[in-house]
């Protein structure tokens, strides 16, 4: 086995609440008010939608909830969160910490150092270090039509990944997963759950809505019913010979194999979407205004190019 290579859950798709758009020749993140489920393939327009993106979307409505299950009973295996600092040019991870200790690339090689959190760290505060979370889920392939039975996913060990640097999403997901693990009697992987998009306003957002991700029991399903179904599902898995404990242990040792979980290839896209130049994000109202101006000029510019080509 290759040393220094983190073995992370296989990813077969992405879940996002935003996209990357081009403004003034730069590709910058733009938030959205609904989920988008994509494949891992991009074209010149962006990420190609996954078939589930339309299958779960009710006609005429935005996708604001996704039925899911988790891969592991341990919350920390399903949801990975830490302080992360990336090189915005190369996309390479530089430093990853948890608020107590960190692993940092230095001129002397990889070092283990104290991690006082970004605001108290001279390197982190100056280098755009952020809390960075990754949630791995399996999407329960239900039909949008009521009464139709659930279909088994094509890849029961593959995951859809949701990435975020939003503090509201990170804190909410971490808290919920621990609560569900406790009330289910450590049967977290057997619970039917649902990702939900929630909105809130704060003084820092100038009272405009900001959106974050929560995870709950499915709509119309009480906690007692969800826990009872999880217990029955675990009994069925045990009878079938599926050992969830060994699966968790395999994932735990896989994570521990590498210094950083993101490869350089993946990190380039992560930096573009979540760790862009902070100067470009300093004035969201200005960025929004510039984006509207670009949208109004886009059609006329396209018309000019077409005429020139003709």
Q: What this model shows, in words?
A:
The protein is an alpha+beta fold and 310 residues long. It is 33% helix and 31% strand. It has helices at residues 51-55, 75-78, 122-126, 167-183, 223-240, 244-255, 264-274, 278-281, 284-309; strands spanning 11-23, 26-43, 46-49, 65-69, 79-86, 93-97, 101-106, 109-114, 130-139, 159-164, 193-200, 210-216. Strands 1, 2, 3, 4, 5, 6, 7, 8, 9, 10, 11 and 12 form a 12-stranded mixed beta sheet that branches. The longest helix is centred in the C-terminal third of the chain and has 26 residues, at 284-309. It is globular, with a radius of gyration of 21 Å. The chain starts with 10 loop residues before the first strand and ends with a helix. Mean pLDDT is 83; it is low at 143-148 and 278-302.
User: Quick one: overall form?
Assistant: globular
Find the structural class using helix and strand composition.
alpha+beta
Largest sheet: 12 strands, mixed
Number of helices: 9
Strand/helix succession: EEEHEHEEEEHEEHEEHHHHH
Radius of gyration, in Å, reads: 21 Å
What key phrases describe this protein's structure?
alpha+beta; 9 helices; 310 residues; 33% helix; globular; 12-stranded mixed β-sheet
In short:
This protein is of the alpha+beta class and 310 residues long. The chain has helices at residues 51-55, 75-78, 122-126, 167-183, 223-240, 244-255, 264-274, 278-281, 284-309; strands at residues 11-23, 26-43, 46-49, 65-69, 79-86, 93-97, 101-106, 109-114, 130-139, 159-164, 193-200, 210-216.
């Amino acid at each position: 086995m290759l040393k220094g290579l983190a073995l992370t859950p296989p990813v077969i798709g992405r879940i996002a609440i935003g996209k990357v758009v081009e403004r003034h020749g730069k590709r910058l993140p733009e938030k959205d008010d609904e989920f988008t489920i994509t494949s891992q393939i991009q074209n010149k327009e962006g990420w190609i939608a996954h078939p589930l993106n339309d299958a779960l979307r009710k006609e005429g409505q935005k996708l604001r909830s996704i039925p899911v299950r988790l891969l592991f009973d341990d919350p920390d295996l399903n949801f990975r969160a830490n302080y992360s600092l990336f090189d915005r040019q190369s996309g390479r991870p530089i430093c990853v910490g948890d608020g107590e200790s960190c692993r940092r690339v230095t001129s002397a090689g990889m070092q283990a150092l104290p991690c006082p959190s970004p605001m108290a760290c001279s390197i982190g505060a100056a280098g755009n270090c952020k809390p960075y979370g990754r949630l791995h889920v399996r999407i329960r392939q239900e039909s949008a039509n009521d009464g139709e039975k659930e279909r088994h996913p094509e890849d029961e060990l593959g995951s859809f990944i949701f990435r975020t640097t939003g503090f509201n999403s990170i804190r909410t997901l971490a808290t919920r997963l621990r609560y569900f693990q406790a009330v289910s009697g450590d049967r977290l992987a057997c619970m039917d759950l649902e990702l939900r998009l929630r909105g809130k306003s704060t003084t820092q957002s100038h009272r405009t809505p900001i959106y974050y991700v929560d995870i709950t029991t499915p709509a119309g399903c009480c906690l007692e019913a969800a826990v009872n179904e999880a217990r029955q599902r675990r009994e069925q898995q045990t009878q079938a010979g599926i050992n969830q404990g060994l699966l968790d242990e395999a994932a735990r040792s896989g994570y521990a194999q590498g210094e950083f979980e993101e490869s350089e290839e993946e990190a380039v896209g992560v930096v573009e979407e979540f760790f862009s130049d902070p100067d470009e994000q300093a004035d969201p109202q200005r960025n929004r205004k510039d984006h509207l101006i670009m949208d109004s000029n886009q059609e006329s510019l396209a018309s000019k190019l077409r005429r020139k080509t003709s």
